[in-house]
Design a protein that fits this description.
single chain; alpha/beta; Rossmann fold; DNA polymerase, domain 1; 2 domains; 7 strands; about 40% helix
């Protein structure tokens, strides 16, 4: 059964749960509930509080329903976390004491070959977290060469993006690119020998395609704004990111929330009236050596947390 196979190793687990400062009677939202790892820990600290679990992956929803569907404190919602405001509005909730978002791909999504996320397994080139809409294969086979190069360079920071895009377009003229290994062979053919010795050649391109397929970066700023706006005063927003592009968006949004007066320094008094909306709980936290040894997928993770002031 899917529910028995779905697994995910939560990253920065204790640090994340502690950052939420869970109150026994509070209202919390796990925006990327996955297999329920973080949610379970939140529930352990809740008494008569409430937990909203959101996930866009239908397989995750099946797991969450099996694990937590009979808990009166829990509401499970199949949606994207960027829609948190409408989700809470429909539930009649006007504010949360804590919101959590783990932006990483789950271990389940990586380990189940047919999801198409992993470059280690031959499978349909899918990568859709929601299992709906445009797939990575659609992108690879329909984007123009400049569009592909831009996606691969921007989201994968791949310096051979142009040659990879050129090779993809040439290959798809003969036949549609359908599988992960087909794409990897094309990527290899477009890279010099020295680059092939520097880690897996498909790592950056696969990251870029996954981000584009799921609109991960483009919708993130608005999603963070929505999550923060859903907090009660004093509530905490904790976000775990997994690469520099994500972390940069989170860092900049949090900086925006903490910004106060914007008047020129030479002004004797403030006339803009702006005060900080939030306060950072701590500097970014990263995995310990012990966690890195136990879970290599945590190596690029960063946790940031902000509290709402108004």
């Amino acid at each position: 059964m899917i529910a028995m196979e779905f697994k995910h190793i939560p990253v920065l687990f204790k640090e994340t749960i502690d950052s939420l400062c869970v109150k026994p009677d509070g209202i919390y939202v796990d925006c990327t509930a996955g297999g329920g790892g973080h949610s379970s820990a939140i529930l352990e600290r809740l008494e008569n509080g409430r937990l909203i679990m959101i996930d866009q992956d239908p397989q995750a929803i099946a797991v969450l329903t099996q694990r937590f569907g009979n808990d009166d404190r829990v509401t499970i919602v199949h949606d994207n976390f960027s829609n948190i405001q409408s989700v809470l509005q429909k539930l009649g909730i006007d504010g949360a004491d804590g919101v959590l978002a783990d932006l990483g791909v789950s271990s389940h999504q990586l380990d189940v070959a047919e999801r198409g996320f992993s470059f280690h397994k031959d499978a349909p080139l899918d990568m859709r977290m929601s299992m709906q809409g445009m797939s990575a294969a659609d992108i690879v086979n329909t984007y123009s060469e400049p569009e592909l190069a831009n996606v691969i360079f921007r989201y994968g920071e791949e310096k051979y993006a142009r040659s990879i895009a050129r090779a993809v377009v040439k290959a798809r003229e003969k036949k549609r690119i359908e599988t992960t290994f087909e794409l990897i062979d094309i990527i290899r053919s477009a890279m010099p020998a020295k680059a092939l010795r520097d880690g897996h050649p498909g790592r950056r391109t696969f990251q870029a395609l996954r981000i584009e397929t799921n609109s991960e970066i483009s919708r993130l700023p608005d999603a963070i704004e929505s999550m923060f706006s859903c907090l009660k005063v004093g509530g905490k927003l904790s976000i775990i990111s997994f690469h520099s592009l994500e972390d940069s968006v989170v860092k900049n949004k949090f900086k925006e929330f903490t910004q106060g007066c914007t008047c020129p320094r030479e002004f004797p008094v403030c006339v803009c009236g702006k005060t900080p909306r939030g306060e950072l709980a701590f500097r970014a936290k990263t995995p310990t050596d012990a966690e890195l040894e136990e879970n290599s997928r945590s190596r690029s993770a960063k946790l940031r947390c902000i509290g709402k002031l108004k």
